[in-house]
Design a protein that fits this description.
- By secondary structure, the chain is of the alpha/beta class.
- The chain contains 42 helices and 15 strands.
Length: 981
């Protein structure tokens, strides 16, 4: 038995000599719990069967019990063959532990010691003993243990914990620590509305903090709850506390020996109409581990500290806003403590409960502030106008700081703001309180990664992060860099010294359980989110749930309207409401996003609330929206294209674009969402892909292809889309949908070519070509172009590429589609460059440039033609001319926002500069290109840019004729025939 310990005041756990033991599955833990809680007494078999399986156990239960006992002995005993702890006794079993080895026994001992300390008038020792007893709890007792017995014990232990908390808080109030206890009492009283003792203590703490109005309001809430739920009135003790607070009973004031010395020396009022009043100091305690937010705190401190020195006559009002869990209250309290000495007449604090369904009434807050400022209850006017006038009169001439925490809107705080410049107010809210006239408005964002790591280290301990630096970074990223989530994760590590950071990170990787894991003690991310969610009306709550269903980083009014099946105006209104509630973020006009953890919360609510058909319908409507938008964008650039009509015959609904620039920006902005939703729908673990979704997804992806996109330099990682293409092909073949087969094969051809699997790529490109009719005026020439692209990406297929591009050009001319011929010439140019035939490439580049300009083909074709001209001229040794063409291409990239093309143009320009001996300019171009290439994931381009930078150093490696060092030359040139890569 040496060293064996059992814990049941949380998840059931067992240790021997500090090493945690495996207690097995849930039913085995139920057996262990039933034995442990009997504290050495024998548990007959029939009782154990009843405890674990209920009144009607299955026939196999007795055998299962014996197996569980045997496995427990293997886990618990030093020698399972000679059990000393888990023993068999006359038709039952007993678990014999050393004294203090069961946490409930230790808790009871500490509680008994605390009672003896109270009787000895040693309240401080009693408080310490109760705190030690309560520290043994680790969440819900017997968490995850099944069975009727465990449920009864769970209720008993929970009740015991509440009793200990109530005793400790009562002692804290006896010691005059009402300001420290009021927050905890409020939370416990709300969580346990039937415990009138907790409510009475909460009312007393509020009253002693000068918040008489709040204390009386809590009594009203308790009375309504008891009446509505049980049909009874409050008990005599709670009613008596209410009556004493109403008449400001002097006996409610802490005794002189309980108060700190500074308070004892303050004289009371001489009219006998109110309790002792001192300059209020109501700020909640500052957190000792405050981390980050340096600029924010410095700004708030400067603004608040300069309140009296400002030349204007208005009071200083600072608003701090942000989503739940972002740390608004923590920042505000920290800043308020930093400047409290500048407000010698006191600091007032109130939690306005803006995120709840029951926000504080301004008149009740005014009343509590007036009491704290020395006004007797009898002298507070009932009329709101008169009360506000008295309130501002009491503030006038004094230097007071008000912390109005958790405001619901500007109207709630307006009558609480001071009227003179000597006072200052610091307001926190989930909304920016846009209609409130303020001195400063600060929106809080999630932590930076370094700030999050600093908080993790501060709480979990400085010795842990250096051992697992990458796991620590993964952990704070899993927390969404949300300060509350990081604090909870760090607190869990601090409470579990033997846990590694990696072990907690692993628990957070399961998104379905992440929010459950992010809770510790009285802190829970989900509970904070629930407050904001509960404040929504029905339409807002439904929108909040459904908008989280698609895997999209950003939402626009158009995409949201598709998901919600409503108009864009209505969708934008509801998203604005969600942003005002702190449940969506909106950094740019018309663009909204969820914080990662809020998305998880919303998605969990959607899974519980929204029928599967509604969730699926939301995704299907979003795909149709993307298809309509892509086809509209194509029509904006090529009104004569038959492809848009073939892919989207309706030509109705979806976005409308006034010009090419607007269409380009829409496609760039929606690309990430399109690809994410495509993957989400095709790879859903439980819902099969329907034919309509497959068909429309295939059409959307085709509109992203190089033969389609004449208007933007989208970077599509085709190599990662192999699995998606196969799902679409299987569905198309099953439905015998020939156009869908062509679409899927084209996607697969590009995907395999991009990943270097050239033979498979050629097979799929050929399959797509064969699936089109010879006289097809929509698909035949485009699929021929795809065959050219696929062949050109294969160093062994360059001759075939020339033939395929020529075939595509001839077919395209027959279809009379403006601009397509220029694309084919560009394909031929890049192929001849790869074949080391820059002279031929030069000819095709000039032809492509002329064709593009004649057809008004847009900026992209012109940029590509100029880029390839620059490359051909560089290969011919005409570097000065190459620089000229690259510079022209770069200017077009800047004008039209072609960021991908800008990166590759800068890289080509660096090559030309090096070839011309202009090393400083080459280095500058390579330095600009390098971060952009890294962002695109272009490993070859990044290596070439790095080589150029090394080459610019003294003694650097010489460049070959093609501008590449030996280390960067691969099997083919860095250019690609896939447009946009």
């Amino acid at each position: 038995m040496d060293g064996l310990r059992i814990a049941v005041l949380g998840p059931l756990r067992a240790w021997r000599d500090g090493r945690e033991l495996d207690t097995g599955p849930a039913q085995r833990r139920a057996v262990l719990a039933a034995l442990a809680l009997r504290e050495g007494r024998v548990a007959p078999v029939h009782e154990l069967l009843d405890n674990i399986w209920g009144w009607d156990p299955p026939a196999s239960a007795a055998v299962a019990l014996r197996n569980h006992v045997s496995r427990l002995r293997t886990a618990l005993e030093l020698d399972p063959r000679a059990p000393a702890a888990l023993v068999s006794v006359a038709g039952g079993y007993a678990l014999r532990l050393d004294e203090g080895a069961l946490d409930t026994t230790r808790c009871e001992e500490l509680a008994a010691d605390a009672e003896r300390a109270v009787r000895a008038q040693d309240r401080e020792r009693a408080i310490r003993l109760l705190e030690e007893a309560l520290s043994l709890w680790d969440g819900t007792p017997l968490a995850g243990v099944p069975g009727r017995y465990a449920e009864l014990q769970r209720d008993r232990l929970t009740e015991a914990r509440l009793s200990l908390q109530e005793k400790r808080l009562g002692l804290e109030l006896e010691r005059g620590r009402h300001a420290e206890a009021v927050s905890e009492l409020s939370g416990l009283a709300d969580e346990n509305p039937l415990r009138e003792g907790l409510r009475a203590l909460q009312m007393l703490a509020l009253y002693r903090c000068g918040r008489q109005g709040d204390a009386l309001a809590e009594y009203g809430r308790a009375r309504r709850f008891l009446s509505e739920e049980l049909g009874i009135d409050p008990g005599p003790d709670l009613a008596r506390m209410h009556e004493r607070i109403l008449r400001c009973d002097p006996g409610l004031t802490p005794s002189a020996e309980a108060l700190p010395t500074a308070v004892q020396d303050v004289p009371g009022r001489d009219d006998g109409s109110a309790p002792i009043w001192i300059p209020p100091a109501q700020l909640p305690p500052d957190v000792p581990d405050f981390t980050g937010r340096r600029e924010t705190v410095a700004h708030l401190s400067r603004t608040l500290a300069g309140a009296a020195e400002r030349s204007v006559t208005a009071a200083t009002v600072c608003v701090v806003h942000g989503m739940g869990g972002i740390g608004k209250t923590t920042v505000a309290v920290h800043a308020a403590h930093a400047v409290r000495e500048r407000f010698p007449d006191g600091q007032l604090y109130v939690d306005l409960r803006g995120a709840s369904r029951d926000p504080a009434a301004p008149d009740a807050v005014q009343r509590s502030f007036l009491l704290a400022l020395g006004v007797s209850a009898a002298n507070i006017p009932a009329d709101p106008v008169e009360r506000t006038a008295l309130y501002r009169s009491r503030l006038a001439g004094r230097r007071l700081l008000l912390l109005l925490d958790n405001a619901v809107n500007g109207e709630q705080v307006l009558s609480l703001l001071p009227g003179t410049a000597e006072c200052a107010a610091l307001v926190t809210s989930r909304t920016p309180l846009a209609c409130l006239a303020v001195t400063s408005r600060t929106g809080l964002e999630p932590f930076s990664e370094e700030e999050a790591l600093a908080l993790l280290e501060q709480i979990a301990g400085p010795e842990r992060l250096p051992k697992e630096p990458e796991a620590a970074r993964s952990l704070v990223r899993a927390c969404g860099l949300l300060p509350l989530a990081v604090r909870i994760a760090a607190s869990r590590l601090a409470a579990r010294p033997r846990w590694t950071i990696s072990s907690l990170t692993a628990r957070l990787t399961d998104s379905s359980r992440r929010l459950d894991e992010l809770q510790a003690g009285g802190l829970a991310v989900e509970a904070v989110f629930e407050l904001g969610y509960a404040s929504l009306n029905g339409a807002e709550a439904r929108a909040f749930r459904l908008l989280a269903v698609p895997e999209t980083a950003m939402l626009t009014p158009g995409s949201a309207a598709a998901v919600l099946d409503t108009t864009e105006a209505a969708a934008e209104d509801v998203m604005e409401a969600l942003a005002n509630a702190g449940l969506l973020e909106s950094s740019d006009p018309g663009r909204y996003r969820y914080h990662d953890l809020l998305r998880l919360f919303a998605r969990h609510r959607a899974l519980k609330t929204e029928p599967e058909a509604d969730r699926k319908g939301a995704l299907s409507r979003l795909v149709r929206h993307y298809l309509a938008g892509m086809s509209a964008a194509l029509r904006a650039f090529r009104p004569d294209s038959q492809l848009a009509r073939a892919l989207d015959p309706r030509l109705a609904g979806g976005p409308r674009f006034s010009d090419r620039s607007q269409a380009q920006q829409w496609v760039i902005g929606e690309l990430a969402g399109i690809l994410s939703v495509a993957t989400q729908i095709t790879h859903h673990p439980t819902r099969p892909l329907c034919a309509d979704d497959a068909r429309e997804l295939g059409r959307v992806l085709v509109l992203l292809m190089p033969f389609t996109m004449p208007f933007t330099d989208l970077y599509v990682a085709w190599g990662s889309m192999t699995a998606l293409g196969h799902v679409l092909l299987d569905e198309a073949e099953e439905d015998d949908d020939r156009p869908a087969v062509v679409n899927a094969c084209a996607v697969l051809a590009l995907a395999y070519a991009s990943s270097g699997r050239h033979e498979r790529a050629r097979d799929f490109a050929r399959q797509a070509y064969v699936a089109t009719a010879p006289d097809d005026g929509v698909w035949r020439h485009r699929v021929a172009y795809v065959r050219g692209v696929v062949a050109a990406m294969d160093p062994e297929g360059l001759d075939d590429a020339v033939a395929h591009f020529a075939d595509a050009a001839a077919l395209g001319r027959a279809s009379r589609e403006a601009g397509f011929d220029a694309q084919c010439m560009l394909g031929l140019a890049t192929t001849h460059l790869a074949r080391k035939e820059p002279g031929r490439a030069l000819q095709y580049c000039h032809e492509a440039l002329a064709l593009s300009q004649a057809a008004d083909g847009g900026a992209l074709d012109s940029v590509l033609a100029l880029r390839y001209l620059g490359q051909a001229l560089h290969d011919l040794g005409r570097n000065a001319e190459a620089v000229e063409h690259y510079t022209r291409a770069l200017a077009l990239c800047d004008v039209h926002g072609l960021s991908t093309q800008r990166a590759h143009t800068l890289l080509g320009l660096a090559c030309a500069y090096f070839g011309d001996g202009r090393l400083a300019e080459a280095r500058a171009a390579a330095e600009k290109a390098l971060p952009m290439l890294a962002l695109l994931g272009d490993a070859k381009g990044r290596q070439l840019a790095t080589d150029h930078l090394m080459r610019a150093e003294p003694g650097g490696a010489p460049l070959a004729a093609d501008g590449m060092t030996a280390s960067s030359r691969g099997p083919g040139r860095p250019s690609s025939t896939v447009r946009g890569e």
